[in-house]
Amino acid sequence: MKNIKDYEHKKVLVLGLAKSGVSAASLLHKLGAFVTVNDYKPLEENAEAQGLLEQGIKVICGSHPIELLDEGFELIVKNPGIPYTNPLVAGAIEKGIPVITEIELAYKIAECEMVGITGTNGKTTTTTLIYEIFKADRNLDPLIAGNIGTVASSVAQKATANQQMIVELSSFQLMGVQTFRPHIAIITNIYEAHLDYHGTKQAYAKAKSNITRNQTEDDFLILNHAQPDLWDLVSFTKAKIIPFSTKEYLEDGASIKDGSIMWKGKKMMDRSEVVLPGDHNLENILAAVAASKLMGASDEAIREVLKTFKGVKHRTQYIGEIEGRKFYNDSKATNILACKAALKAFHQPVILLAGGLDRGNGFDELIPSLKYVKALITFGETAPKLESTAKKAGIPVVLRVENVEEAVPVAWELSEPGDVILLSPACASWDQYKSFEIRGDIFVDAVHKLR
Q1: What's the whole-model pTM score?
Q2: DSSP state of 252
Q3: Is 436 in contact with 444 (CB distance < 8 Å)?
Q4: Would you say 188 is a known binding-site residue?
Q5: Pick from 59, 58, 21, 29: which is nearest to 43 by CA?
Q6: Is 86 labeled as ligand-binding?
Q7: Looking at residue 313, what DSSP letter applies?
Q8: By C-alpha distance, which of 390, 405, 391 is closest to 446?
């Protein structure tokens, strides 16, 4: 870790805790800043705040008092989930106080190069693929961090100069960067998302573009060739652009030709050797291949991983096969777009398990993607809407159950050898489960019980 002096003797407010806030506060304290932590949760219920208090860090809990802005803070490190409309944040910006997220701290102290991955869909799969390929290469020594669950500013403290940090980045994190500069940046794709936070697609996309804001001619930006709007978005970049495409052969990037995965005109392997299903995952694979080759990974490491990598948990995750039926856990499909991407991966009969929180939308947009669905099993608040869509799509069997656990044995009874049984809810989980991870774990447990 670089022993920087940037924050020494500076008054810094860390706004919001969770893992990123705790890491940021501890790090800033270590770097000699005068740190105050402010979190909404009351102190008596706040183990993280109590731990920071024991380190000698000033802690204010239970509310976000606007009066804090009168205490002369020179910097605010904001939890990514706190919106910029928060009165404290908005007031700080009005006063000219810089507001950053902890990824900026991670970059400042990291001794190693970073590969940064963002986008609407595919971030976690791409991040994990790159990490696994780097791990498989004897000349690389990767660390994984960021939005994937491991706080970047904690990982950066342990990173050495000969390592590589593979960092998944959300739009929320990228709004709060000043100098952050990954050597390799990836934007997998941009679709409309998080409008409740950003307000418009344009604002959301602009936040994503911050991943390349500080890159130079010595850096690389990997982009989806199929999204010209994305290229327009980053037209300001100084980085060397490396394209990837599943639709078009590219001499200067990663693409598909005659059923083969290609890198700059050279065949890497047959697509048929790749375990991970779906065109959307093929885009993730090509982005990961590009990043891996740019960082010097061997062809052997890439082939080894792509022949064995079955997917990230809860993201079109292959669970296994029972008596000719293949089971996939795509609990992360919390919206229609993600469900459509999962359905596109299969060209055999599918029994689809879907449902969850009703966000007020309909599901008729799914109809073109349901052509291989032979049965739909619904659950949760949205069950009636999904059933209405299934009727319009002409799905012959539609059944409603109470929850995911009940859906699995029902799907089994309806299935035949050669079928896919897919959990891809197209909805958030919060009407029945605290998270999509819990929903997915229950599905996996129910599948294992069938054995």
Answers
A1: 0.84
A2: T
A3: no
A4: no
A5: 59
A6: no
A7: T
A8: 405
Asked whether residue 122 is marked as a ligand-binding residue, the answer is: yes
User: Tokens standing for 419?
Assistant: 């079928």
User: What stretches of 119-217 adopt beta strand conformation (E)?
Assistant: 142-146, 164-168, 184-187
Q: Output the CA angle 195-199-203, nearest 5 degrees.
A: 95
Is 119 a known ligand-binding residue? yes
- 42 band by pLDDT with thresholds 50, 70 and 90: very high
- Strands 75-78 and 11-15, by their bridges, are parallel
> pLDDT value at position 103?
97
Alpha helices in 110-236 (DSSP H): 123-136, 152-158, 171-174, 195-198, 201-209, 228-233
125 annotated binding-site participant: yes
Confidence check: pLDDT of 315 > 90: no
Nearest C-alpha neighbor of 337 from the set 248, 260, 424, 265: 424
C-alpha to C-alpha distance for 213 and 266, rounded to whole angstroms: 31
Please give the residue that has the higher pLDDT: either 322 or 315.
Answer: 322
288-303 mean pLDDT? 98
188 contacts 287 by C-beta, under 8 angstroms: yes
Q: Which amino acid is located at 200 in the chain?
A: T
- Percentage, residues of the chain above pLDDT 90: 89
The answer to whether residues 440 and 404 touch, using CB atoms and an 8 Å cutoff, is no
Please say whether the beta carbons of 186 and 291 come within 8 A: yes
Is 389 assigned to a binding site? Answer: no
C-alpha 87/C-alpha 416 separation (Å) is 57
Q: Hey, is 403 helix, strand or coil?
A: coil
pLDDT digits (tens, 9 = 90+) for 148-179: 878 999 999 999 999 999 999 999 999 999 99
- What does the block give as tokens for 401? 């159950």
Say how far apart CA 74 and CA 116 lie, in whole Å.
Answer: 27
Which amino acid does the sequence have at 310? K
Close Cβ partners of 201 (under 8 Å, ≥ 6 residues apart) = 192, 195
d(CA 275, CA 399): 31
Six token digits for residue 25? 């506060």
Can you spell out the DSSP letters for 372-389? TEEEEEEESTTHHHHHHH
How confident is the model at residue 91, as a pLDDT?
96
121 is in an annotated binding site: yes
Q: Catalogue all structural domains in the chain, each as residue range(s) with its CATH number.
A: 11-100 (3.40.50.720), 103-306 (3.40.1190.10), 317-450 (3.90.190.20)
